[in-house]
Fold this protein.
Amino acid sequence: MATEQEEVEVRKRLVLDANILLRGVFGIRVRALLEAYESTVSFYAPDICFDDARKYIPNLAVRRKFDPAAGLLVLDALSKLVEPVDISLYESYEDLARVRISSRDANDWPIVATSLLLDCPIWTEDQDFFGSGVATWTTDRVELYLRGNYITLCSTGDGQNVDVGNGLDLSIAPISTPAFSFRPIRVPVYASNHDPALAVSRIANC
């Protein structure tokens, strides 16, 4: 078995819903997490979530005695940390997403569709996503995923769910997904006799 180290580029991904974006505008915790992990995690939200957030910010700002214009500026700043995903990229998953969430709120299908597109979990406080077959994280627990001490990386050319060292299930999408440019981190992978199409590594302190 070869002992030399090879390198594979990989990056965790997470889809945010509109409620989390709003928490990022008016709160501290969400924005702090985004800033703390932007170098190791790619954050996304479907375009409609940004549209919804812009729609609700003025009323919420008035109720919180907050300048609406400032709130919109904060949302614009968040779009530098959370990449908006255009509907043209996730609309092909609409039917499957609607089926997944049909018993809850079908209007949330873009979030599920984006999660399916990127093969990654959703960061949400909305219980409508529970039982949809998509992994979800709430704000009080999401840092377990963001900082996960152990992660098993699989690059097989198509997205797949993997079991990670800390017992959590992560969905790792292909290393390269058309229409997205990732800023990946580098992690060590030891060469082995495995199929070269599959790069697998369990690493500490990812």
